[in-house]
Amino acid sequence: MTSYETQNQANTIWLTTADLGSVRQYLLDLFCQLAYKQGDFVLSSGQRSSYYINGKQVTLHPQGAVAIARLLMSQLATDTQAVAGLTLGADPIVSAVSVISVYENRPIPALIIRKEAKGHGTMAYIEGPSLPAGASVVVLEDVVTTGQSALKAVERLTGVGYSVNEVIAIVDRQQGGSELYQSAGLKFQSLFSIVDIQQRWQQLQSK
């Protein structure tokens, strides 16, 4: 086993038992090291930005997925019956949360919302286990800018009779998403704000 593989294994074991404060700091550093870039970018919203956060660099990272899932699990209300999100950004997040929920003896199914209805079979927008009408579902997102992606997921879920009252993101870019959710009557929280990411990135750059 290489030293890299040994370190990865050690980190994974540590992440499953560490206190959440340490897990949060580890995840923040991982976002700064792998996902945050400065430059000239065009976002999915069409806006230009001097920085970009590629959340998939962390949500698809083995230790990143464990850290994200543990932190999000701690934020979910006790009556949460499923987590859901719009493909593709939310796919690894809801999957990781669902897996970790088993180890925490609190199994929570994952739902994936298609951007377009499936063109065959059930023609469904939503993939995953069927839930009872009125089931409480929390929408998860990696990076929130305007908030439109998660809001689309909310609309699909409520359209089939589920109850959605909250959106939780990993990173809030603080560019209107929170206000959009508030206007829609949704609770919103994030693990990190863009200020958290940028301040820690600057600290790591100066080392």
Written overview of the protein:
Homodimer. It is an enzyme of class 2 (transferase). This is Orotate phosphoribosyltransferase. The structure is a single chain. With 207 residues, the protein is α/β, with parallel strands linked by helices. It has one domain (3-205): Rossmann fold. Helices cover 45% and strands 24% of the residues. The protein has 8 helices and 8 strands. The chain has a 6-stranded mixed β-sheet with strand order 5-4-3-6-7-8, with helices on both faces. Helix 5 links the parallel strand 3 (82-86) and strand 4 (110-113). Mean pLDDT is 91; it is low at 1-7.
End-to-end C-alpha gap = 30 Å
Give the mean pLDDT.
91
- Which percent range describes the beta-strand content? 15-25%
Give the number of helices.
8
Here the CATH topology equals: Rossmann fold
* SSE pattern, N- to C-terminal: HHEEHHEHEEEHEHEH
- The total tally of domains equals 1
What's the arrangement of strands in the largest beta sheet? 5-4-3-6-7-8
Rg calculated over all Cα atoms? 17 Å
CATH architectural group? 3-Layer(aba) Sandwich
Oligomeric state of the chains in view:
single chain
Give me the secondary-structure topology.
Layout: H1 3-17, H2 20-35, E1 36-42, E2 48-53, H3 56-59, H4 62-75, E3 82-86, H5 91-103, E4 110-113, E5 126-127, E6 136-144, H6 148-159, E7 163-172, H7 177-183, E8 187-193, H8 194-205
Helix pairs in contact: 1-4, 2-4, 2-8, 4-5
